[in-house]
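Incident log, support desk, overnight shift.

02:14 A customer reports that sequence design results differ from what the structure should imply. Their input is reproduced verbatim below. On-call engineer (initials T.W.) acknowledged and began investigating.
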């Protein structure tokens, strides 16, 4: 259903619409790996989704355009469809999960589309979009399982080969599979020696499960901070392409995703949403056989809600050993807290907060418990402080 000529045509159509995003060296993210980032989080609308959505809309017939378009999305496809429809003078209605980040909902409206919020996740929004499409005759723009949408996403593969001819591996996030299907098709057609790896959230591993089972599988539920890839079932077309062309698909958990978002912020000055950071998480936590390979991680989007970002940063700090809470059992007498603080300070820890509890049935009558929240350097630093507290005869409970 897909030809490489279609991807080249999409590249020509998108030339004056989509940015040719940079490939950025990332030596500090994973010391020892030859790692680079394809920064689609800096794309117009903040996501790669613009490419497929715009190209699909540009190829509609006059009759299809006249009927208006409808789409369903976790948020990023919505913005691409809204922008593409507005540029082409077409009415657009987008069904979004009611829990989609507010920033994505408002951005979609800002690009000129009408929004319908649907209780549930992406798949529920899809069902509602199908219902409205049948009722009103809209033209449906699928977020991933459409050859022209896949072709639009495949232009990223062309760009990677053009920008880095000696690339040896490409790591791509997977939700429904449109992005990796397009990228894998373009790269494997032109450079079959290049490895293409996919990454999903372990809480929404529909493609990984389907590939393992050898057929398209439907998950009963999904749960992940990577809302952009929280898809219960991959596409039929995307599954077939992945089954044929993708070398391996791995998963990362929410803590690993949070740590990757934090690392991208601190070390690369890049804001990535959960879906965009899974590729980096897989590299950071050794999920892929990329040692010695010149590797590009595709950071697919940066549309993360600010409140979510705050929680993710806290989670990422904990995961990487930058924050830690010690619980210490003390004798309730003068000087004990001062002694603890002295040990922590001498060993380079920075105390953020202290919680002191006297009334606790698990402690001695003349005892108390304190919780110290610290800023630390890493896991090794945490162990150094723990050992120093024990050597000073403090009873560390965790």
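02:41 Re-run completed on a clean worker. Output:
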């Amino acid at each position: 259903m897909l030809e490489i000529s279609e991807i080249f045509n999409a590249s020509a159509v998108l030339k004056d619409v989509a940015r040719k995003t940079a490939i950025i060296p990332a030596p500090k993210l994973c010391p020892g790996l030859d790692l680079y980032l394809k920064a689609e989080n800096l794309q117009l609308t903040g996501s790669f989704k613009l490419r497929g959505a715009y190209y699909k809309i540009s190829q509609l017939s006059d009759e299809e355009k006249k009927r208006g378009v409808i789409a369903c999305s976790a948020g990023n496809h919505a913005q691409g469809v809204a922008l593409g429809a507005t540029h082409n003078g077409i009415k657009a209605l987008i069904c979004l999960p009611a829990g989609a980040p507010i920033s994505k909902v408002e951005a979609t409206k800002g690009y000129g589309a009408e929004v319908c919020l649907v209780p549930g996740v992406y798949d529920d929004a899809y069902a509602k979009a199908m219902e409205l499409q049948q009722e009103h005759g809209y033209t449906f723009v699928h977020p991933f399982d459409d050859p022209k949408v896949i072709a639009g996403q495949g232009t990223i593969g062309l760009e990677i080969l053009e920008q880095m001819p000696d690339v040896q591996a490409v790591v791509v996030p997977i939700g429904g599979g449109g992005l990796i299907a397009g990228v894998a098709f373009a790269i494997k057609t032109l450079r079959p020696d290049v490895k293409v790896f996919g990454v999903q959230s372990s809480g929404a591993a529909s493609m990984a499960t389907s590939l393992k089972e050898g057929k398209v599988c439907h998950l009963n539920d999904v749960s992940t901070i990577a809302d952009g890839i929280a898809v219960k079932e991959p596409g039929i077309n995307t599954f077939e392409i992945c089954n044929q062309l993708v070398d391996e698909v791995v998963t990362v958990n929410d803590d690993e995703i949070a740590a990757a978002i934090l690392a991208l912020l601190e070390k690369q000055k890049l804001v990535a949403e959960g879906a965009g950071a899974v590729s980096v998480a897989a590299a950071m936590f050794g999920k892929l056989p990329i040692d010695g390979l010149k590797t590009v991680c595709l950071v697919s989007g940066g549309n993360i809600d600010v409140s979510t970002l705050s929680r993710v940063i806290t989670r990422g700090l904990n995961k990487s050993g930058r924050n830690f809470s010690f619980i210490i059992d003390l004798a309730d007498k003068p000087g004990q807290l001062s002694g603890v603080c002295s040990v922590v300070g001498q060993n380079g820890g920075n105390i953020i907060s202290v919680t002191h509890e006297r009334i606790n049935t698990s402690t001695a009558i003349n005892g108390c418990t304190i919780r110290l929240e610290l800023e630390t350097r890493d896991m090794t630093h945490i162990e150094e402080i723990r050992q120093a507290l024990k050597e000073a005869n403090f009873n560390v409970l965790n």
